[in-house]
């Protein structure tokens, strides 16, 4: 460990607050980071010193030990010795944790102990109409809850006596250096609690939690999309004595609908229309996602693939009273099994249509282009 005064290394006074320390650390860590100073050994050395200094001063116990004993507190099992190697508990992990921890939800609690129990992931499947209206869906999960026998304390006796974990010294985490990086994990002896129960509970064996199956009613908001993840804070695994519960993350899967296809806030509905109806025009009745019906006018001469827009008849928008639009996709049906009379009528119609210019503009234009193509060759 560097013998330089950590306050001097960070450029702060001995009365500096935790925020002042953090700001000074961030500034210097970014300034001397090896990625910004490739090949600069002096910058790399300073980078390590900055991490060592911040590792001492950010921890109240280590800071108090240094203020009283100086560097002697961390030598040869002194009162502040932590038993960690490498960057003295700092390093790249601290940079990412301090700069991005709050944004990613990974910030440490005081003293570096385990902040919460384990998170749980579950999946629920709902229909498209339930996604439109919103619903409550039961979710069954395998989890860990607070032990009822010891009220989650992990102790068989009421005194709840416990000693600091001999492996992590109460930190709840242990660190090991792997090359340039420092790997941190929960202490295997105490499971991250930082202490060992003297008289463990006979049911949970000192863990403070037991395995159980739970069923929760999860509120699915209207407008939710397939693949949405819903977070239920504190509904994850219990963390044991002195540790908050983890979170439950529910992944929502929306089943395909027989009639409607969703695209964001818009809905598409393919509606078959008789050939004569498409040619003559008319009115049809179509379903709406909210369970109602609406009438739609089919213009005369409507072609297959034509879309009709119904404003405000689409999907509900998440956390809003607004709705998208509904698009009717017309599919003109060609009759298959014809009676003798129907065939005669169609043949008569086709004969007359050939002599009526403009009645088949698409086909006329296409075959005109085909003739030009062959004439050009």
TrEMBL record:
Keywords: Chaperone, Cytoplasm, DNA replication, Metal-binding, Repeat, Stress response, Zinc, Zinc-finger. Pfam families: DnaJ, DnaJ_C, DnaJ_CXXCXGXG. Its cofactor is Zn(2+). SMART domains: DnaJ. A zinc finger (CR-type) spans 134-213. Residues 134-213 form the CR-type domain. HAMAP family: DnaJ. Homodimer. The J domain is necessary and sufficient to stimulate DnaK ATPase activity. Zinc center 1 plays an important role in the autonomous, DnaK-independent chaperone activity of DnaJ. Zinc center 2 is essential for interaction with DnaK and for DnaJ activity. Participates actively in the response to hyperosmotic and heat shock by preventing the aggregation of stress-denatured proteins and by disaggregating proteins, also in an autonomous, DnaK-independent fashion. Unfolded proteins bind initially to DnaJ; upon interaction with the DnaJ-bound protein, DnaK hydrolyzes its bound ATP, resulting in the formation of a stable complex. GrpE releases ADP from DnaK; ATP binding to DnaK triggers the release of the substrate protein, thus completing the reaction cycle. This is Chaperone protein DnaJ. It comes from Endobacter medicaginis. The gene is dnaJ.
């Amino acid at each position: 460990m560097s013998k330089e005064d950590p306050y001097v290394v960070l450029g702060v006074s001995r009365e500096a607050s935790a925020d002042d320390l953090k700001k000074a650390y961030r500034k210097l860590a970014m300034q001397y980071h090896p990625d910004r100073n490739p090949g600069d050994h002096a910058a790399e050395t300073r980078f390590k010193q900055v991490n060592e200094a911040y590792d001492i001063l950010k921890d109240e116990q280590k800071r108090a030990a240094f203020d009283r004993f100086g560097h002697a507190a961390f030598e040869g099992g002194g009162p502040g010795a932590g038993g960690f190697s490498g960057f003295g508990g700092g390093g790249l992990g601290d940079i990412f944790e301090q700069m991005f921890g709050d944004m990613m939800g990974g910030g440490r609690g005081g003293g570096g102990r385990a902040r919460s129990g384990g998170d749980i992931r579950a999946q629920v499947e709902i229909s498209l109409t339930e996604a439109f209206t919103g619903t409550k869906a039961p979710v069954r999960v395998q989890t860990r809850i607070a032990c009822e026998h010891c009220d989650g304390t992990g102790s068989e006796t009421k005194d709840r006596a416990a000693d600091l974990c001999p492996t992590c010294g109460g930190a709840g985490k242990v660190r090991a250096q792997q090359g340039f990086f420092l790997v941190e994990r929960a202490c295997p002896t105490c499971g991250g609690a930082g202490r060992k129960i003297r008289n463990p509970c006979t049911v949970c064996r000192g863990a403070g939690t037991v395995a159980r199956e739970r069923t929760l009613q999860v509120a699915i908001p209207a407008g939710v999309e397939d693949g949405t993840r819903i977070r239920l804070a504190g509904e994850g695994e219990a963390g044991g004595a002195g540790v908050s519960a983890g979170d439950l993350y529910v992944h929502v899967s929306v089943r395909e609908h027989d009639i409607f296809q969703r695209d964001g806030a818009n809905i598409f509905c393919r509606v078959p229309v008789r050939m004569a109806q498409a040619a003559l025009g008319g009115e049809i009745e179509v379903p709406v996602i909210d369970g109602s019906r609406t009438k739609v006018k089919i213009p005369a001469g409507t072609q297959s693939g034509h879309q009709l827009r119904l404003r405000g008849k689409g999907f509900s928008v998440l956390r809003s009273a607004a709705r998208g639009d509904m698009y009717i996709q017309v599919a003109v049906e060609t009759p298959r099994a014809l009676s003798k009379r129907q065939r005669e009528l169609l043949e008569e119609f086709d004969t007359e249509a050939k002599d009526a210019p403009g009645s088949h503009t698409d086909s006329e234009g296409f075959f005109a282009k085909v003739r030009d193509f062959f004439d050009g060759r």
